[in-house]
Specification:
- This protein has 83 residues and is α+β, with helices and mostly antiparallel strands.
- It has one domain.
- 18% of the residues lie in helices and 42% in strands.
- It contains 2 helices and 3 strands.
- A 3-stranded antiparallel sheet has the order 1-2-3.
- Strand 1 and strand 2 form a beta hairpin.
- The longest helix has 10 residues.
């Protein structure tokens, strides 16, 4: 019986001059250890983007790189939710 596995990993991480970060994640489907399918997902994170944890939280190395790239940029204030 064939063994299938899915691997998702950050395959590109670029800090741009604006301090935004371009991220590409690769998803590979492996059959018996051989890649049979590959797809990509891309996004750009603005400094202190609220989606950073969702995008990079499972990759601590890249998450910490993002935080380090933004350490000198003030965190914008959070506006209270409208009622």
């Amino acid at each position: 019986m064939a063994n299938f596995e899915e691997k998702i990993y950050v395959s590109e991480f670029n800090v741009l001059p604006s301090k935004s970060i371009g991220v590409r994640k690769t998803t590979e489907v492996l059959k018996d250890g051989e890649c049979i399918s590959q797809s990509y997902w891309r996004c750009v994170l603005a400094p202190h983007d609220p989606q950073t944890q969702a995008v990079l939280g499972d990759e601590p190395y890249y998450y910490n790189l993002a935080l380090d790239a933004w350490k000198d940029i003030p965190v914008p204030p959070v506006e209270p939710a409208a009622e």
